[in-house]
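Design a sequence for this backbone.
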């Protein structure tokens, strides 16, 4: 009965002075969890994972830290700011982290909900020229997402889609660059296409639609021209020779 009464007293003195904040970390990287509110006098400061797993305890009077099993070498504690740094993050580190300062009362002075994510895959941006001159279709692909957009000359339609997990894929234009961007809260990768490439494709298509000599080399054209001239000259000589013979015969 006495133990239950003591437990109820402890629970009744647990006070939260901060709201939970969402933070994100990249696999194999580090993240720092800070105390956002001033911490008054306390005897111990305990960082806890998912409410039940102790990570690190700091004893004020002794100025000593204690790391709990499974966290040795993976956490760092700042004795001046009381911040906790988690190193070599893995997806299993995702969850709720709380800092509890205990003295006359137990106060939650920091609370974070950490999500550890993989880096995004590099997207791929492709283009295809349609039958209509200067009408180009762009395709932006990233993981299981895809965007198709159309461009006419230097005007392109911008689009964005988001996966069910909240990972966006976007196709946008910045100055003279078309950007296919794939990102999450901790990483981003892109593939780009210069607008001058679309102008070149448009110009090539335009030339091909009006010139009958597209793709024919200059050397070949010169050879044909010289052959025609020689044929004409030879024909003229033969004609003159025939006329002279006919004149003499008459």
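Sequence:
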């Amino acid at each position: 009965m006495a133990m239950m009464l003591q437990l109820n007293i402890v629970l009744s003195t647990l006070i939260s002075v901060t709201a939970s904040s969402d933070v994100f970390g990249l696999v194999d990287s580090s993240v720092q969890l800070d105390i956002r509110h001033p911490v008054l006098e306390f005897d111990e400061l305990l960082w806890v994972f998912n409410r039940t797993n102790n990570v690190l305890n700091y004893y004020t009077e002794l100025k000593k830290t204690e790391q709990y099993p499974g966290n040795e070498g993976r956490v760092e504690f700042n004795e001046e700011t009381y911040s906790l740094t988690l190193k070599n993050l893995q997806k299993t580190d995702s969850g709720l982290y709380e800092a509890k300062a205990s003295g006359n009362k137990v106060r939650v002075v920091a609370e974070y909900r950490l999500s550890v994510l993989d880096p995004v895959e590099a997207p791929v941006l492709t283009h295809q020229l349609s039958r209509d001159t200067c009408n180009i279709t762009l395709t932006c692909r990233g993981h299981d997402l895809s965007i198709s957009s159309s461009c006419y000359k230097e005007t392109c339609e911008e689009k964005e889609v988001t996966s069910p997990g909240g990972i966006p894929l976007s196709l946008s234009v910045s100055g003279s660059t078309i950007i296919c961007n794939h990102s999450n809260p901790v990483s981003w990768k892109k593939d780009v296409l210069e607008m001058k490439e679309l102008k070149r494709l448009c110009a090539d298509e335009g030339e091909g639609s009006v010139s009958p000599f597209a793709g024919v080399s200059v050397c070949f054209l010169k050879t044909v021209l010289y052959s025609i001239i020689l044929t004409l000259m030879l024909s003229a000589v033969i004609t003159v020779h025939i006329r002279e013979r006919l004149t003499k015969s008459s």
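The radius of gyration is 38 Å.
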